[in-house]
Amino acid sequence: MSADPSILDHFCVIVNTSHETLNGQCCLVSSFDPSKSRYTASAVTSIMPATKRTLQLKAENLQPASSMEQKKYQYMKLKPYELLQDPKYAEVLRNAFQLQTELTSVASSYGLNLSILSKILPVLLLLHTYFFGFIKTFLLVTLITYPIIFSLPSLRLNKPILQCIKSIPLNLSTELTRATGYNVSSSLATIGLAGFYGMGVYTYFKSGGTKVVGGGVDQGMMERIYAKGYDDGSAGKPFGTSLEESVGSGSDVPYDDLGSVAPPPATGLGALGFTHLMSAGLIVKAGYDLGKGTDGVWNPANIVPNGKANPMRLMMPAFGMYRILKALGVL
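The chain above was modelled as a monomer; its predicted structure follows.
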């Protein structure tokens, strides 16, 4: 019996085996043993823990996988498995899966149905993005998720919500101490957290460039506006004389006042927006990354040597610093 070219060296789906856990799994067929009439295939059956099995399967147990099944297997199982072989990425993925498991467990203990929340939250996020914009939606998600993450140790123990909130500064200081190697007190963590949330809440409630949600203007209306403007110009009338009052409503610009002057740009802290907050975060992160030594411990003495070794890493933080100083009027 010869090997089937549609199976050998291709992704296949395992079918009709006596092991229900294998049926439906995608695998990569690598070789064929003519003496046993068996194909050798490897399949990643689990990510956490990372498990890859080598199987001996008959031709009737293999079915060519569709392109969608191949992509799903490659990017949801094979790539994560390969990353888990690298200790650097393994820790990150382990933490991500652990966080997902803990959030599911905590939500269940407080009577929250994650399947319902997973259907409602996307709708709420889309509505919030439509009315308030993507930047404020991203900021709101950040402000909500940070307390949840740092209160997880208390949430795991099913403590009252008030106690979980009170434990956030202590948990934050513990994580900062573990990550940096420096003893960060809970009071210092509280000050940093208060500063972050103060700036975040200020940015969130800061008014945007427009007060209303802009609607579409149909082509017929645009033609009527143009015709009236043309007629006004031909008759020597001021622009907008024949336009309805509704045109331009919701805007602060006085179109009917030809001598109006645009308001001056904001100065000081009022000139800072969410992008400047992101730039400040980028500067802090760059300082933390540059200060880490080969042992993983942060030391300010490492910033200058690491910066000289890789000056390209300083370009984006430097640009962010320039934008902040320019907005504040320093430059």
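Residues 114-205 form one domain.
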